[in-house]
Amino acid sequence: MAYLTLHRQKLTENFEFLKGMFEKHDVSWGVVSKLFCGNRKFLKELIQLGVREIHDSRISNLAKIKEINPEVQTVYIKPVSKRNIAKMVMYADVSLNSELNSIRWISEEAVKQGKIHKIIIMVETGDLREGVMGDHLVDFYAQVFDLPNIEIIGLGTNLNCLNGVMPSTDKLIQLSLYKQIIELKFNKKIPWVSAGTSVTIPLMLHQQLPKGINHFRVGETLYFGVDLFEEKVIDGMHGDVFELYAEIIEMQEKPLLPTGVLAANPQGEVLEIDENLYGKSSCRAILDIGLLDIDPKYLIAEDGELEIIGASSDMLVLNLGTNPKGYAVGDTIKFDLKYMGALGVLNSSYIDKVIV
């Protein structure tokens, strides 16, 4: 059976690297756990690192965090649906919001539950996902800051999550200015300016982060050590906290081209024939993992000579060429993963998860 490993020591070293960097810049931060898809073993690993603020996009995952350690501050990081507000207020201490009606409903529910619910107002800065338009922000704040049992603790933004818009010093300065405008107009303090996610870290590394930015929500760089501007692993961090192992369940020499009338496969793909490959063959291996678990484009084979041919729902096919390394049925092939690949594997109940 295919399995995924989490390397505890490498995760620890990545966490300590980020912790030191944020402390140096006097910036607070929380860890985004949505990659773990609620895996209790992995959530415990985060908490054992000393993480005391965890962000997630699934209320059920926040509930598990509260079960493991009620002292961890939990943050719900997407707009909440009306029917889930009661559960969200129950398990999330903080939420990211950009809808007036939703905040009013949260206020009503917080009163019922006898809780103070903290809110970060999300501001649109160009990527066109969630967020209040900047020219509406003052009016928006005026309608929510004195709602009962609601505490506005920050302004935040998301970039690069939908249209690929990258953060910049100018955009983040604008976010800081919004905070100053609101504080002056309403004589209220807003503790956090939450600049964003892992994609903003390179600005800090290159001393380009505006001084007013004092809070981050970090997932991908913690787990993959990646600089998302240059798409490479940051010096001093690890890119292989996660590794995927899949077993060879069949291996035979077969033609490079299929025979028969071609139509679309179940994924809607039609093979384009390269006539130069007629009459040629290679060693092909089938692995015990498929599209139910991961899209092959997010797999990076440790053996760079392997070629991923394609996948069906439960099987992945590799071209081994002449099989110079002598792979055999029963051997495992190791892969590194891109973020979305790890997300798919962690969301799959068919893949074992192991802590190394």
UniProtKB/TrEMBL annotation:
<dbReference type="GO" id="GO:0030170">
    <property type="term" value="F:pyridoxal phosphate binding"/>
</dbReference>
<dbReference type="InterPro" id="IPR000821">
    <property type="entry name" value="Ala_racemase"/>
</dbReference>
<dbReference type="GO" id="GO:0008784">
    <property type="term" value="F:alanine racemase activity"/>
</dbReference>
<dbReference type="Pfam" id="PF01168">
    <property type="entry name" value="Ala_racemase_N"/>
</dbReference>
<dbReference type="GO" id="GO:0005829">
    <property type="term" value="C:cytosol"/>
</dbReference>
<protein>
    <submittedName>
        <fullName>Alanine racemase</fullName>
    </submittedName>
</protein>
<feature type="domain" description="Alanine racemase N-terminal">
    <location>
        <begin position="7"/>
        <end position="224"/>
    </location>
</feature>
<dbReference type="InterPro" id="IPR029066">
    <property type="entry name" value="PLP-binding_barrel"/>
</dbReference>
<dbReference type="InterPro" id="IPR001608">
    <property type="entry name" value="Ala_racemase_N"/>
</dbReference>
<keyword id="KW-0663">Pyridoxal phosphate</keyword>
<keyword id="KW-0413">Isomerase</keyword>
